[in-house]
Amino acid sequence: MAVRVILEVRAKPGTGNELVALLKSILTDTRAYEGCTGVDVLQNTDDADSVAVVETWDSHEQYEKYLAWQRERGTSDRLMKALADPPSIRHFDVVDA
Q1: What per-residue confidence (pLDDT) applies to 48?
Q2: Average pLDDT of the chain to the nearest whole number
Q3: What is the dihedral angle through the alpha carbons of 44, 78, 69, 36, rounded to the nearest 10 degrees?
Q4: Which pTM value belongs to this model?
Q5: Which spans in the chain are helix H?
Q6: Which of 7, 46, 51, 71 is at 20 to 30 A from 17, Cα to Cα?
Q7: Overall average pLDDT of the 29-37 stretch
Q8: 76 near 31, Cβ under 8 Å?
Q9: What's the rounded mean pLDDT across residues 20-33?
Q10: What CATH number does the domain located at 3-93 have?
């Protein structure tokens, strides 16, 4: 079953555009990773330091495998250094409604 993952992050004050640039460099590999069927980055129009990444994966297991791979590569640490607060990660099953 397809899973939608929503990652919400807050950049350090005044660095939202730099965070988006960092995400752009990371998400090339994300989009190519097995099981990823889509990624969108959303930057808040009223607060450029507020960013959401919406990912679609074939399964929760594939997302978890990807996340472990990113942690092993040190990508998660690079991202955390750019954030003002811990990220929020939520998982949703895509349902037929």
Answers
A1: 98
A2: 96
A3: 20
A4: 0.92
A5: 16-32, 60-73, 75-81
A6: 71
A7: 97
A8: no
A9: 96
A10: 3.30.70.100
Residue 97 pLDDT > 90, yes or no?
A: no
Is 86 strand, coil or helix?
coil
Q: Is 3 helix (H, G, I), strand (E, B) or coil?
A: strand
Based on its alpha-carbon atoms, the radius of gyration of the chain, rounded to whole angstroms, reads 13
User: Residues 6 or more apart from 65 whose CB is under 8 A from it?
Assistant: 35
The proportion of the chain whose per-residue pLDDT surpasses 70, expressed as a percent, equals 100
pLDDT at residue 37 above 90?
Answer: yes
User: Burial level of 2, CB count in 10 A (0-12/13-18/19+)?
Assistant: middle
Distance CA 62, CA 85 (A): 26
In this structure, the number of other CB atoms found within 10 A of the CB of residue 84 comes to: 13
- Provide the 3-class DSSP secondary structure of residue 62: helix
- For residue 83, the 8-state DSSP code is B
Task: Show me where the domains of the chain are located.
Answer: 3-93
Q: Alpha-carbon distance 52 to 74, whole Å?
A: 20
